Amino acid sequence: VLIGLGIANIINPGKGLAKDKTDALIAQYQDETSKKIDTKESKELKEQSEFEKITALFVNMVPKNPIKAMVEGDMLAVIFFSLFLGICITLIDPTKANPLIRAFDGLNDAIIKMVTLAMEVAPYGVFVLMAGVVATLGLDVLLLLFKYAGAVVLGLMLHMIITHFSIIYFYIKQSPIRFLQATKEALIFAFSTSSSSATLPISMNVAEKNLGVSKQVSSFVLPLGATINMDGTALYQAIAAIFIAQIFDIDLTLTQQLTVILTATLASVGAAGVPGAGMITLALV
User: Fold this and answer.
1) What is the tens place of the pLDDT at every residue in 33-86?
2) CA distance 137 to 20
3) CA–CA distances in Å: residue 232 to residues 96, 201, 236, 239
4) pTM for the complete prediction?
5) Label partner for 146 (CA 20 to 30 A): which of 84, 173, 244, 266?
6) What is the dihedral of CA 172, 173, 174, 180, to 10 degrees?
7) Who contacts 277 (Cβ-Cβ below 8 Å, separation ≥6)?
8) CA 29 from centre of chain
9) Axis crossing angle, helix 184-193 with helix 196-209, rounded to the nearest 10
10) CA dist 283 to 10, 14, 85, 144, 279, Å?
């Protein structure tokens, strides 16, 4: 997330749109957004200091009413409650916990199937939306989107070099090139499917056969990583948040960028390992 925020603040992918086109975008969405931000809570928030805002963020993560938080779409509170509930389920009698776990597993599978079906038709919807935006505002918006995509790709490359290669070279004392060669099957499949869940069996096979990782380690670490370690999702959501803010000529404060770090991390942990799931959790950020 920090890499994504750093690149977005340096490259400024959302800046460069002509003032009249920015005004047109703002006018298009002003009525909808004003209803969301011109509330009693938002006015009180504007009067708070930076420290009070950060403190309030953590206090409000703990929901007074979890059902109300779900209805109102307060995702931070929902995620906090979900994590707390999950921890408590592991601490009770397994005979009572197992039926509940199976029910959640079934619900999770159903939701993933819903997302998968939605994502199959999503490209057509995105094409129509983009055609409308480009027809209204010209090619300038399209050029900014290319700039945004380039920022994401650059961020992912830096993350691979700075984070992964550093750990492999300095801590594991192995060659990053050898690692890439050994894991190329999983990397190519992941790139083509955009799904960590679909890539998981290949990742486990590659880890055991090509890297010599024990089955005990790979069968625990890789499913866990495929579920909660969505680095690419976290990075692209950070850049997307800055990009959208810049498009609408909004300067995010330090507190707001810290909020992006927290929410992008939680959103990436909560994202399903299917193509396009990060687009849904981006709404949280």
Assistant:
1) 666 555 555 566 556 665 676 677 778 788 889 998 888 767 678 878 888 998
2) 9
3) 37, 19, 6, 11
4) 0.64
5) 266
6) 50
7) 112, 115, 119, 233, 271
8) 23
9) 180
10) 24, 18, 23, 20, 7
